[in-house]
Amino acid sequence: MITVDDQLIAILAERTGLTRDALFMPVTGTRIQGAFSYPLHDDEIEDVVRRIVEDLTRVIPLGSATEADPASRYVSLHEMTPYYASAQTRLVILRISSAGEMPARRSPGDVYDPLTDGWDLDPEDYDDELVRAAQQWTWWKHVKAAGAREIWQMPEPYVGADSDVPLDRALDERDRTGDEAAYRTALQQICNANYRDIDAWAHSGHEALARANAVTGTSPTAKRRRSAALKEALGYYQTGVAVGELSLPTCFTGVLPWSLIQNRPFLRARHGLALALWRLGDFDNASTVLRTSLWINPADNQGLRDLLSPVEAHTPYEKASID
């Protein structure tokens, strides 16, 4: 039985990873609104915790869904899931929204034209197998049908910083010392210091994904540890993608090419999101993320096109044959 807010906050802090300060208003506000009252007996605690966690993880709509074919437009995170994997994501989005926008901007005079920059390959210059495969890619057919589109550029989270950004220092220190625990702590500090640093969220996801890869065996304990690390990675990647979507205009129709360095953190976060969803068995959403990433970066510098077939065949990640 629990009788005071502090006890409930302690349970939620362990469940969500949020600080006690961040949980104070959700708990007290929910109680003041009459959603529950003390004492809470054992059979009531889980129900109250579940309802508060749902409120803390409910997805915030960013951008607007349209009636257009999802294969021919940007599909936002809120269209794929009603809840974030991590309560931290919603908190970050609310705090960034309160701090003010940092919008993506058009790259002046730059247009992506699939007729000149695309995958209609000359057989004299490319391998025959690749030429034939490209002719069959449905995602590429949608890109071609859309015609020329404007090129956009994501904002820089460290305005005026040409080098030595915090993430670079953390990566250099990890490479120098090999201390993964210190690296994980540094990543969290960077994320907390600048919520807009999409690359820090993406690399946090990479780090959690690496921990999932390091878990061996098929015992129940191993499976729980692997699943926990994958869900942690999913939360980080979702946060990075959601932060990026805050910068995009409503009903975004442009291209975010890898060739513009500022776009790479967002594209990395999307790549990681697809991998985490795939490894957790969410094939449909993994496919949506991959196809949307190809829509905004048709040059596909990340090789996402090679992941589509096994994902859409519902091939488990562990059994897929990919380079």
What does this structure look like?
The structure is a single chain. The protein folds into two domains: 5-57; 70-106 and 135-319, Tetratricopeptide repeat domain (Serine Threonine Protein Phosphatase 5, Tetratricopeptide repeat). It has a two-stranded antiparallel sheet. With 323 residues, it is mainly alpha-helical. 57% of the residues lie in helices and 4% in strands. The longest helix is centred in the C-terminal third of the chain and has 28 residues, at 220-247. It has helices spanning 5-16, 20-32, 42-57, 87-99, 114-117, 128-136, 138-146, 166-177, 180-193, 198-214, 220-247, 264-279, 283-296, 305-312, and strands at residues 105-112, 149-153. The model has no long low-confidence stretch (mean pLDDT 93).
Low-confidence stretches: none
- Structurally, the number of domains stands at 2
Q: What's the helix-strand series?
A: HHHHEHHHEHHHHHHH
Radius of gyration: 21 Å
Strand order of the largest sheet: 1-2
The CATH architecture of the largest domain is: Alpha Horseshoe
CATH class of the largest domain: Mainly Alpha
Strand content: under 5%
So, the CATH homologous superfamily of the largest domain? Tetratricopeptide repeat domain
Mean pLDDT: 93
List the helices and strands and how they pair.
Layout: H1 5-16, H2 20-32, H3 42-57, H4 87-99, E1 105-112, H5 114-117, H6 128-136, H7 138-146, E2 149-153, H8 166-177, H9 180-193, H10 198-214, H11 220-247, H12 264-279, H13 283-296, H14 305-312
Antiparallel strand pairs: 1-2
Helix pairs in contact: 1-2, 1-3, 4-11, 8-9, 9-10, 10-11, 10-12, 11-12, 12-13, 13-14
